[in-house]
Design brief:
Blueprint (H helix, E strand, L loop, with lengths): L6 H50 L8 H6 L2 E2 L18 E6 L5 E10 L7 E7 L5 E8 L51 H25 L9
Antiparallel strand pairs: 1-2, 2-3, 3-4, 4-5
Length: about 220
């Protein structure tokens, strides 16, 4: 007859199971660490490539991705004021598109539209030295599929209506969607999202005007890598 396990035998069994689980956990953690180590450079490269594509999409052909990325500077670095207009922190980066003559053709600014339908909407806007929008893109959002998500260029041309606009064209009072008496189209079935973006881009232009000298005249500053 087989005798039941003694407390000592049961304790040993539990210890063996615990040791086995610990070894498995250590092995798994080590495997994850090794995988992360070898894929980190790839992830960073892919993120940098995506960032470059977003920036270059705002500009005419002819700008080098690496030069554009290397132009990054933090807004704190130039002691920018009125950051509340952008709804971002001072450690966020902006970029400068510089031509072959060393002149700044555009400032590329990140900004946030805090009053999106689902959550805050992140954008980037390209502004010429004269204060004219050369392009804008939504970079992150969670708006309703089929409605608010039409602010993506991949879904519709709605965002292109801001090209060539400035605080003089139209005047600030007209920087609203047409439903509110302004000059900008809303989206069918979605007004909150377009309204938030129109306001955010107007405030981005206002920020640019208030900080134009700092944004355009920091060529001697070291870039933020």
């Amino acid at each position: 007859m087989t005798e039941p396990n003694s407390p000592t035998t049961l304790s040993q069994s539990i210890r063996r199971s615990a040791i086995g689980l610990a070894i498995f956990a250590c092995f798994t953690a080590g495997l994850i660490s090794v995988t992360n180590f070898f894929t980190q450079d790839t992830i960073q490269t892919n993120e940098r490539a995506y960032e470059a594509r977003q920036l270059l999409s705002l500009l005419p052909d002819g700008y080098a991705a690496e030069a554009l990325l290397n132009s990054a500077r933090s807004l704190d670095q130039i002691e920018a004021t009125d950051l509340t207009l952008l709804h971002i922190a001072g450690d966020e980066l902006y970029y400068r598109a510089i031509n072959d003559q060393g002149q700044v053709d555009a400032i590329l600014l990140p900004l946030v539209a805090p009053e999106g339908y689902s959550e805050a909407i992140r954008l980037i806007v390209g502004i010429s030295p004269t204060g004219t929008i050369i392009g804008a893109r939504v970079t992150r959002h969670r708006e309703t599929p089929g409605l608010g998500d039409q602010v993506e260029l991949q879904k519709s041309n709605w965002i292109l209506q801001f090209n060539g606009r400035s605080l003089a064209k139209p005047l600030p009072a007209a920087w609203q969607v047409k439903k509110d008496g302004g000059q900008f189209d809303q989206l069918t079935g979605a007004t909150i999202t377009p309204r938030a973006i129109v306001t955010a881009l107007r405030q981005g232009l206002e920020f640019f005007e208030l900080n134009k000298t700092r944004l355009l005249a920091d060529a001697l500053l070291e870039p933020t890598l």
